[in-house]
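Q: what does this look like with zinc ion bound?
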Amino acid sequence: MTTLISGGRVLSTAGASAADVLVDGETISAVGAPGTLGPADSVIDATGKYVMPGGIDAHTHMEMPFGGTHSVDTFGTGTTAAAWGGTTTIIDFAVQAKGTSLLSTMDKWHEKADGNCAIDYGFHMIVSDVNDSSLKEMQSCVDGGVGSFKMFMAYPGVFYSTDGEILLAMQKAREIGATIMMHAENGIAIDQLAAQAFAAGKIDPVQHGLTRPPELEGEATSRAIQLAKVTGAPLYIVHLSASQALAAVAEARNEGQNVFAETCPQYLYLSIEDLAKPDFEGSKYVASPPLREKSHQADLWRGLRTNDLSVVSTDHCPFCFKDQKELGRGDFRAIPNGIPGVEHRMDLLHQGVVAGELTLGRWVETCSTTPARMFGLYPRKGVIAAGSDADIVVYDPAAKQTLSVETHHMNVDYSAYEGMEITGKVDTVLSRGRVVVSPSGFSGSTTHGKFLSRDLNQYLN
Ligand code: URP
Ligand code: ZN
Ligand code: ZN
Ligand code: ZN
């Protein structure tokens, strides 16, 4: 079965060029000058559209246990929503509960995901119980295709690791070639600030932001960088939100250290003003790190241009407003942390292209090519080239759409971007050669997605 995608402009990190793409089975068999490929069994007319590598969202939380509840997208609903939005790969976090092993955690995530995904998927491992056997098991995780380990400097008593534990895991990561991913916020100090606010009767969602100041993200980011320097481990800062943290990352990168960072659309488009919305509406925007003052946003866009921010992921972690965010109505500390977004990342970052903040090449690079290289999926994913998986998005840059809970496909009862007008829209999505989204709707299946056993970071200097 062959498919010809003709008449479009193929996007790569270098920008756009007119080309046709021939798909044979699950892979791309040729990329050639317009009119030179084919015939094929079917033709997709991409005239006036971009033909780009499918998005790779390297940070999602499907069915994640948190704060006595769990994120509401299953692997089935979450990966289907991702496909609607032009994302053809997710990397989800398998969460080690204290007192359990990394390998049993991996098994548990396989049980949840295998046979239940509309697109291909991989895992990172969250290490929340650093001990001799966890450290030993890190190599087995790598052997099982999971070469990246997230640790937390936040959430004391839940996921938090001490500096000593982080040091041990970094030493192991250095030894086995793995990457440490860091949630860099000073959770010990934050918990004191949050307790003080609550004791003073300050219970509203905006307190979540006010008690997690950007300085404590900057401080933790610097500390993580120094620990990585001492141990020699590659470090990837997840969901970077603050100018102070970005400055620390930029300084380390200027010195040649293997430090990388991602940001998320919510930090580029939403702010603490959303957290301050009345009638508990602010709870919809509670995530950690918190939404910041708008003044941080220009720095984040600049970081994306200079590659101090290499990746855009969503940190998709949906909790319903009605029965889940509610848990924190009398105490902002009990609001489940997370914002839905897996469906909208490609569209939201396209707004950066429209606004002149990003080139087309950087859009593709931050949303697809770099996450593929960073997490051992390149060139299978992240590029339109002969031999690569046919994970392809045909994107109409001129179409208009309005984001809304009424039209999104995520399994959550609100949109953080309600009413936002978007220029550009996904037209057609192929996942390993199969059309899963087209103008006539979703034609994929939640048994189609395959587990991606990943190589180690290919992006190290
Ligand atoms: O608030 C967030 N980010 N929830 C998901 C867990 C995490 O820290 O990534
Ligand atoms: Zn985190
Ligand atoms: Zn996360
Ligand atoms: Zn619900």
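The pocket of zinc ion (ligand 2) is lined by residues 183, 238-239 (CB under 6 Å). The domain at 54-374 is CATH 3.20.20.140 (TIM Barrel).
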